[in-house]
Amino acid sequence: MEPRRLGKQGLTVSAMGLGCMGMSDAYGPADEAESVATIHRALELGVNLLDTSDAYGPFTNEELVGKAIRGRRDEVRVATKFGFVRDSDRSWQGIDGRPEHVREACDGSLRRLGVDYIDIYYQHRVDPKVPIEETVGAMAELVRQGKVRYLGLCEAAPATIRRAHAVHPISALQTEYSLWSRDPEDELIPTVRELGIGFVAYSPLGRGFLTGQLRRFEDLPQDDWRRHRPRFQGENFQKNLELVDRVKEIAATKRVTPAQLALAWLLAQGEGLVPIPGTKRRKNLEENVAALGITLTREDLQRIDEAAPKGAASGERYEDMSAVNR
User: Fold this and answer.
1) What 3-state class would DSSP assign to 28?
2) Which end of the chain is more exposed for a tag (fewer CB within 10 A), N or C?
3) Could you write out the DSSP letters of every residue in 131-190?
4) 27 is catalytic
5) CA atoms within 13 A on the CB side of 83
6) Nearest CA among 88, 81, 142 for reference residue 117
7) CB count in 10 Å sphere of residue 298
């Protein structure tokens, strides 16, 4: 597994990570045994970056990841997040970036994960009520205490990233990036590359849409959160199928799956960029990891760019975009 550097502070991770959210939350029924087996298979394949959050479940995903890595801590780079506040009934209560919450949330994550330190600690979303300097100042304190090794932000705007980075080096920005979410190319990727910050791409398969496996809205489980995302609804769904079909055509000429093509495209976008496709099944994990062996020519990349240009996806990423790009 090729290592990739995130930031300039010494953090290296596998070229592809594993998003663990769907193992406990949002994407239909959970299967803990298969999820733990998927994490173990990831480690066997050399995938060492595991991404979770206290909001996933809530809390139960960190416990699952902790269970899976018990006795194997040295093999893993654990990334988790704070900021989204959820009650035990799974309802969303808002965003909290107060220093006291940062400290409490970190201690809770360490306990649930069963680890002494967190490799990457992200602010899940920027809290508009708290200056970013105060939040990152509290995160930096965790680094000094040895509870956290590297700091990250999620879905932050360029100006916020610069302010945060001035307080303490930011090693990674995690933002949605895929063939149907190419907005980061405008300002975010140039900003992090200028500052020497790594980029972690979440939902690199468009929340599963780019796999080509979803053909009808009704195929989504009743408790699947994608039912509430604009890109999966009504006319948007049908228009986005056309984009996926164009990707499928190119994938067929390369004798790879649409998911593998989408991941290979991301991996070809330059150094310091790591996609973290999420799955709770070993079969899908193995398919995703195989994308690391795909070489795309300049002609391939041009065809993909024409098939899925910036802004090609129909509909917003979230029904409420107010919490992103702050």
Assistant:
1) coil
2) N
3) -HHHHHHHHHHHHHTTSEEEEEEES--HHHHHHHHHHS---EEEEE-BTTB-GGGTTHHH
4) no
5) 27
6) 142
7) 8
